[in-house]
Structures are given as C-alpha cells and as structure tokens.
Amino acid sequence: MTDSRKPDAGPLSRLIDGALEPFAPGLVRKRMAERIALDHIRQYDVAAQGRRTQGWRRPSTSANREVQQGLVKTRDSARELVRNNKYAASALRQMTANVIGDGITARATHDDPAVAAAAQADWDRFAEGRPDGRHDHYGQQKLLFRSMAEGGESLAVWGPDSEGPNGRCRILEGDFLDHLKSSDSATAPIVQGVEFGRDGGRAKYWLLDQHPGDSRGFGRRSRPWSAEHIDHVFEELRPGQVRGISWFAPVAMDLRDIQDYEEAILMKRKVEACLALVLTPPDNGNASPLFDGDGDGGGQGGGAGEAKTPDTMRPGMVFRARPGETAQAVNPSSSGDGLDVIRARLMGVAANLAPYHLVTGDPSQSNYSSLRAMMLGFWANLDDWQQNVMVPLFCQPAFARRMRRLALQTGDLRFLAVKPQFAMPVRRFLDPIRDAAGLAAELRLGVESYPRVLAARGLNPQDHLEEIAAFAAAADKLKLALDGDPRRTTQSGVLQAAAGYLAGRPAD
Predict the structure, then answer these.
(1) 454 and 421 Cβ atoms separated by less than 8 Å
(2) How far apart are CA 153 and CA 394, in angstroms?
C-alpha cells in the first residue's frame, strides 16, 4: 500500500508548476492537491508510477495482440530447446506420457445396451485403426498434445474416406494456420488465420498448402477450410484468445540459462583438471623453447630446433627445463559447482511443466510425503489439461463425428444420443502399500465407488466383474485357494473360517 509521502509529480509536471507559480499560485496549489488526491486513490503499489516500477513494461494489449507479437519466435525457441536441451525434452515427454499415456479411451453409453454395444464396436474399430494411414487414434492424441504443448496449438483436419464422412484425420502443427491472414471486415473478420461468422463463432480456417518451414520452398498461399472439419486444440488462457502460445514461453529463458551455466561449469572443471608448469629462465636471459618431435629435446624442450609456443593447457603437461631454470606449478583451485543454483532454477521450470524429479530424474531430494505432494499438484494440472483441453477440443468432437457417421450409415438416429464416458490413463501408485490402503479406506467409507475406480483405470466395470467371476469359478473348480481371493483367505493370508469346500477336508 502507498504511504502519505508527497507523490512524485514527474519532471514535466514540476516544470509546468515552476512556470505557473509566479503568475497563478492558486492553480499550482490546485494541481498539487489533485495529485495528492490521485495518489491516495491509487491503493495498489503495483499501479503506482515510481522508482520501484521504473522500467516495468506493462502494455494494455489484448490476448490476440500478445500472441501475434510472440507466436512465431516463441514457438521456434521452444522447439529448439526441445531438440537440444535435455530438461526441455524430458519435461515435454513427461507431460505427454502423463496426459496421454496409452490413450484417453471412450466408453459408449445409452439406455439401450444393444445400441451402446454397437456404438462401442464401431468406435473401437475406428480408434484402433489408422485414421491417417500410420497412427491409431491414441497415437494421434500423443502427436496432437505434444505439438500443442511445444508449439502452442495443433489442428485435427477431418475428411471423408471411401465409406463416408469423417473417416480420415490428419494432425497438423499450428504453423499451417496462416497467422498473417487478418481482416477487419465487419461481416467476416479474420484474426491470424481464423475467420469468424456473423454469430461470432469460428467459420473458417485459412490453412497453408505446405508447412512454412519446408526446405523445398513454396509461394505462401493459404485457402479457407470450413471449421466444421477442423478441431483447433490449444489452451485458452484469456477470454477471446484465438491462437495458442507455447507452454514453454514462461520458462524458455531459464532453460537456456541453465544450459549455458552447465556448459560454463563443465569448462571450468576442465581447466581445473589441468596441471601446467610455468618455466622461469636463468639469469642469463636465454629462453627455454618448446620443441616439436624434430628437436633435440624430443618435443619437451632443451634442444635446438624450431620453437613452439603452446596456447592451450592439457592434463599432465610437463616441460623439461635447462639447468638454472625454475618451474612453478599452475594448479587451479576447485570451487563449488553451482548445483544449488541449477536445482533452484529447475524447480521453477518444474513448477510450470512437470515435477522436478520427473524432469531431472533426480529423486534424491524427496521422500514419500514430498513426492506425493508434488504429484498431487501435478495430477491437478493433468485433470485440467485432460478435462478442459484434450477431451472437449479433440476427444469429444471425434466421438461425436463417428456417431453421426454411424447414424448416417445405419439410418438409426439413436446413435446420435450415444454419449461417451472417457477414461484417463492410469495413475500409478507412488507406494503401492500405502496408496492401496488409502483407496481401500475410501471404498469402505463410501466416498469412492468400484465403478469409478475401475473406470479411472480404463476398465469397463461390467466386463471386469464378469472376468473376475469367470476366474473365480475356474479356481473353485480346481479347488484352488489363492492368497488374493477374499472369499477364501483373510488379508493376512489366513484361511477364512467357512469358505465353501475349504470348511472341511475334500473327499478326494
């Protein structure tokens, strides 16, 4: 909060006051009173103009203006980091593995089980096929998310195949969306390649024919594609934001500084590993030249030949001196390697992308409690990225497209009412014993249900129960008592008091 000190009027205001004071002191007093009142109205220090905020750039730009100014360079910088910076590459891989994993799966639901089963069979055929001729639907999820996190946005372009609409799907990088295509038309405004209709919704996307970074080169030409056939996937950070920005934007400079700092430390260590000798000539002033293999000194000085002056040091450097010369060892002292500095900077990077121990592979600074605390925060981010980005912007539209196609092919409009339930990749236990005990407590208290637990692991509850029942029946037929069968044994492995044929000794 601001204090009651006299506000800084600024050089221009002081100049004006000084010029007016001899002629209109009342006006000057009024101006000063207004400035004092304005200073009291500004109750936020961050909104004040003064020494502490000097040099702080705070433009009042819109989300689209900010993205337009930094879209290309931020995207290119992030990709270079992912290519050459081990921490950036690890962070992107860990985010992709945790958000997508083996795929976000869908389970069809409908009041009529037959309709749900038919819809599920059709969806599975598509998802396990190759919509782009190479990857299945889950492989495309990986490509789409990875491209979005790295470059800021991705495009899924749908097209027909030989059997009907929405049979093909291509994943494109955001580079294909022409960011130079803009128009202030009142009827069809275009913002960085996205054309809007009269209702304010997205109507068309202006896509380039080839990737702008293609080495073959081409004339930059874009053409409109109906928004009906394109899913534009990015994280919208501000209302009205039209294009996405790389997720590495807040940490790109830190990652680059860390890389430069590590290289400097490595060079310093190399220098410290060198032991050199500085030769002092005798009083007669004759130098002790260093010779190559052709000299009498065998490359170590002391003979006649062409002098060689070294300009580098290497470990184990030893020169022979002439009689009367003295040698002084150069042995650089070792100092701290800056590990704490690197770790602190990486923790800031990890807070924006993935947990520190996943990015660096270093769990030495963590125990179970701290790891779980970090993973709980990371899982909250995963929920956000999965439920608010991937599912509504790609997975849900893909399922809806396939159901419309199925209704068109069969003439059964009930497929339009089929809804998906999405199951996220399994989140592994940090400590199976502790985590399983916590899950069992939640089930006993009723705050969690078996169907939800199974669905979270990508399992169909009905199919899973039938599989357990079939396995239990087979075990009973063979008169097996497995330690993991709660019908036969207690949690400690002791036989239950009365458990079918185990209550007495079998006849045979």
Answers:
(1) no
(2) 12
| Angle of CA points 372, 378, 379, to nearest 5° | 85
User: Tokens 């992308």, residue?
Assistant: 353
The set of residues, in sequence order, having a beta carbon less than 8 Å from that of 321 and lying 6+ positions away, is 279, 288, 301, 302, 327
Q: H or E element: which one contains 403? A: helix 396-410
- Contact between 75 and 152 (Cβ < 8 Å): yes
Q: What is the C-alpha to C-alpha distance for residues 222 and 127, in angstroms, rounded to an integer?
A: 31
DSSP 332: P
The model carries a pTM of 0.77
C-alpha separations of 375 from 27, 368, 384, 395, 435 in Å: 63, 10, 14, 25, 13
Nearest to 225 by CA among 250, 200, 256, 193: 193
Q: Are 156 and 170 in contact (CB under 8 A)?
A: yes
Averaged pLDDT, groups of 10, the chain, 508 residues long: 49 74 79 72 71 85 92 96 96 96 93 96 96 95 97 96 94 95 91 94 95 74 94 96 96 95 85 67 56 44 47 57 65 69 91 93 84 90 96 97 96 96 86 82 86 77 86 87 75 62 49
8 Å CB contact between 194 and 176: no
Please state, in angstroms and rounded to a whole number, the distance separating the CA atoms of residues 483 and 492.
Answer: 9
